Structures are given as structure tokens and as C-alpha cells.
Automatic annotation (TrEMBL):
One of its GO terms (molecular function) is cyclin-dependent protein serine/threonine kinase activity. Residues 70-84 have a biased composition (Low complexity). The lineage of its organism: Eukaryota, Fungi, Fungi incertae sedis, Mucoromycota, Mucoromycotina. Residues 103-387 form the Protein kinase domain. This is cyclin-dependent kinase. Residues 1-93, 397-453 are annotated as: Disordered.
Amino acid sequence: MESLNTNTIKRSKWASDESEEDIKPQEPKKHKKKEKITKPNSDSTSAVRLATISAAPPVSAPAPAPEPEPVQTQTQTQTNRIPRPTSPPPNPLLSACRSVDCYERLNHIEEGSYGIVFRARDRETGDIVALKKLKLEKEKNGFPVTSLREINTLMIAKHPNIVNVREIVMGNHLNQVFIVMDFIEHDLKTLMTDMRAPFFQSEVKTLMIQLLSAVSLMHENWIIHRDLKTSNLLLNNRGEIKVADFGLARKYGSPMGNMTQLVVTLWYRAPELLLGAKEYTTAIDMWSIGCIFAELINNEPLLPGRSEIDQIDKIFKLLGTPSEEVWPGFTSLPHAQNVAFVKQPYSNLRSRFVCMTEAGIDLMSRMLTYDPARRITAEQALKHPFFSETPYPKDPALFPTWPSKGSGEKRKVHSPSAPQGAHAGMDDDEDPGLEGTLFAGQSESTGFRLKLA
Ligand SMILES: Nc1ncnc2c1ncn2[C@@H]1O[C@H](COP(=O)(O)OP(=O)(O)O)[C@@H](O)[C@H]1O
Ligand SMILES: [Mg+2]
């Protein structure tokens, strides 16, 4: 058995990111019950640790805290650079961190824009966890503000439907920082690509309620996620959503300061961002949630634009071209003057979702409302009649379970480059006779086939 002492380990398996180390997950070794002396209660200790650098208000704090100017934060982080173990004074966040070697690396899950995610086992407790290795290699200016925001936000936003961060651990190099989270079996994007049939409406309702209640908590605390999409929503095998990836999240307040418009993955990006609005609010997350809602129902992305112009075009074709009447101030937005938009006088949303009830279409339209000031909030959405009509939301405990790709329970995917808009991905070994249930060959306007919940 490997010792926890890093000196005795020849070369940490965490030293490289390559998938060579995608070690075959072994059956969990019988966990030896040791005297519990060293393991800190990760939640509380790490939250306390982070609180010392973030001075973040607790989740219940009602007042907005304007974010410091990025320049200031950067300077601050430079002075707080990660110290070598011998050089005092220690950074209050990182000096208390345990080593990544406390975790046994199992397999690589995914590499995204801000980090590489691995599945690992806590050597002491045997718990299976996910480690997100932050991409700091190219950082010249100290700890990047995006990573600080991600850690900070995850630590303060505690909610049953937000992924739980256990602790932050360090590798052998100063640029190796890992966020240790509970391991969650699926992300909705991968799962929906593999599912043989879409979610039942009763399941969509449960997922939407969970998502809305997590986002409602964030927005109450002036946190905008800024990258809500199906790949950032994790789902465990107990029917519980966990919002993840706070790499773009930030606090907002008054005055707003400079906020980049280059946020949110294109397909989920609100029209005010696409049209160059200088200021935006939590309403941008609600637009993304509207797109996610539609995707959960139809099992295909609602607005898969190929470019920003194409994205705007797709939005206008679906929802009708906006006017000053429905969206006051629309014509004065920076990009609204430069582009000749398609003239679409009415919304086609209803014909795209033929099996949805009036209440369902109403909720979706309120999320996909052009004017951000009139767009429904997460709190209002939770009270919408759609959630209290039949079919009722399904008890999460009654959700089906699926094999977890992140756990290495992979089925061979025939075509890894299947188009994003494709209906469910067909695996080699799947019964082609099921193709019909995946809406294969369905045109944009033919709606969807609903199974009765
Ligand atoms: N806690 C977790 N448990 C299991 N898988 C996870 C977890 N966190 C992230 N993942 C997987 O890794 C992917 C990338 O993680 P994410 O935090 O979104 O990183 P990025 O910022 O690079 O997009 C997710 O889409 C998901 O598939
Ligand atoms: Mg992501």
C-alpha cells in the first residue's frame, strides 16, 4: 500500500495530465477504519480557510457586494502568490491545503476550458471524488482571478443542487491546484447524448425545479453564473441536479463596473449580450435556463448557432424579430444598428413544442423574453403554474439510473464527433430499432414525441 508521505512516492501520478495515467478503476479496497485524527471536516474547514481570503459574505447575506476591479484583484493575487513551503508568510488559503497525493487518481473525466477533471479516491476515507485541476501553467501574474472566483463562489454558494466542494489540494508544483468535489455520475449533455429517449415531462419538471432553486439562491446572493448549459449541469443517480463550473461566475452589484460580454456559450447566450449591451444582469442566466428547458424537452439544443450572427438569426426566426415595443431600448444597442435582421413577425415557439401545455409554453416564453427587465426571475419561475399541473414533478428517488461515463462505465461510442444537434447518440451496441424513439430524422418544426409520464 502506498504511503501518504509524498517523499516516498517516486513520481506522483498527478504530475502529468496525460491520459496514459487513466488507470483502470480498481474495485474499492476495503477501507481500513483508522483513528480519525488527521482528516479535517472538509466542508467546514475549507470554507473557513477560504473565508479568510475571500471575506465573502455568507450565502444569506442580502446586500450586493460590488466586485473589486479586476486590476486590483490581480495585483492583490500577485502579492498573495503561492508560497514555497519554507517561505513565510503563508497564503492563508493554500498553506492549509492538503496534498493531492491524499487522493488516488482513477480516471480522466473531461478536459474543458478552465480545467481538467479526474475521478479519484480519497485514500483515507475511500470516498470517490472529482478533482478539477485548474489550468494555471501559463499564468504569469499569480493566481488567476477566474480561478479565485470559481473557488470563492463554490465555497459560498452552498445548496443541495450546487456541486459540493470538499477542499482545495495542492500538487508538488505551485501551479498545481485542484478543487476536490463530490463525484457526480453524469453531466446532462453527455447523458442526453446517450439516452435512448428524452426525459419524461415529469422528470423535466423535477430537474427544472432543482435548477431554478439553485439559481435562485445564486441570484439572491448577486452571483451570476454566466455559463449555464447542459454540460455544466451534473446529475447523480438519485435524480439530483448539481450546478457546476463556476469558472465564469461573478458577483455583480452597483455600480456595475466593466463586465465582459464575452460570456456564456453561444447557444445559451442572451440576446442583450449578442447585441453588445454594456451592462447585464442575472437575467442572462434565465435566458440560458430557457434554452436548457427547451433542450430537456426536445432532447436537442434549441438554438445551435454557428456564429454570433447566425445565433441572432436563429433567435429571431424562432421568437420573432423584436421591436421597441417588446424590448424598449433594443434599437439603440451597439450591434442592433449595424445588422439587417431577418423580419419574422411572430413567434414559432408553439409549433416547435406541439405537445407542451399552454403553461409550459408560457413559462418557456417568459424565460426567453427579449427584454431582460421583463424576463422571468428564478424565484418567480418556481411559482409558475407549469409545476403544479399534471404530470406532476417526479420524485427524484424514482428517477432511472444510467451507466456513468465519468466512472469509466463507458459504452463504445461509434462516432465521437456526432453533430451536436443530433438526437440521442447511437452506440455500436444499441438496438437500431430504437432509433425512432430518439426522433432521428425529425425536422426542426415537427415537434417531439412525448412519452406519458
Ligand atoms: N464533480 C464532478 N463529478 C463528475 N464529473 C464532473 C464533476 N465536475 C465536472 N465534471 C465533468 O467534467 C466536465 C468539465 O468540468 P467543468 O467544471 O465544466 O470544467 P470546464 O470549466 O473546463 O468546462 C463536466 O462537463 C463534467 O462532465
Ligand atoms: Mg464546463
